[in-house]
Amino acid sequence: MTMAMPRVLFFNQAGLYGGAERSLYDLVTHYPGHCRVVLMQAGPLYDDLIAAGVDTDVLGGGFQRATRRKWITLTIRLYSLIVVAIGLVRLSRGYDLIYANSMKAAVIAVLTKPFHRRKMVWHLRSLLVPEHFSPLARLVARWCGNWGADLVIANSDATARAYQSNGGKCLPLIAYNGFTLEKFRPEMRADLRAQLVAEHGLDPCARSSA
After folding, report:
1. H or E segment at 158?
2. CB neighbour list of residue 48: distance below 8 Å, 6 or more residues apart
3. Rounded to two decimals, what is the model's pTM?
4. What is the pLDDT of residues 138-167, one digit of tens each?
5. Which of 21, 112, 205, 208 is the 20 to 30 Å CA partner of 142?
6. DSSP β-ladder status, 8-12 and 56-58
7. Domains of the chain with CATH codes
């Protein structure tokens, strides 16, 4: 008897591409079960997911709006946060678990867990060390991992060790970021070289000097 794949609601903050977003794109476009992506901001990631046929929503309109009056900016961001939280709870009803792909996504998923009551996976991609995060941010991250997440995934052994050093009770599952082998084949490198030559007017016969 084949076990059905869980229905996954992937949740990410940014709509622009970074390492986490490239990994997310590869994951959702190859996921064999039913899934949906929720973003807090529109951008190239949203466009590419839609083009790939992945159900994708943008909630809240992002957190980047700002005015000269701080209280107005805070009000706008709080309103956006509430819209995202309500939308996440509503969309989660048709899914088995929420997969938080960023720290902000994890915080919102944990805060709304009493309402959506879904399993939550947090894919941690940042080193939780003082050089990168404030004491408050590391406290929030520890709370998210220990109280809210049913599973923590780390993108490296260093990330996992930093998480545990920050007070994480469980040992995260380590899943290294992958890459597409086809892009490193000789014929692909030749095509890329030809493209660079054409775009930048380079001499195709030139050789780099040592």
Report:
1. helix 157-165
2. 25
3. 0.79
4. 999 999 999 899 999 999 999 999 999 999
5. 21
6. unpaired
7. 8-179 (3.40.50.2000)
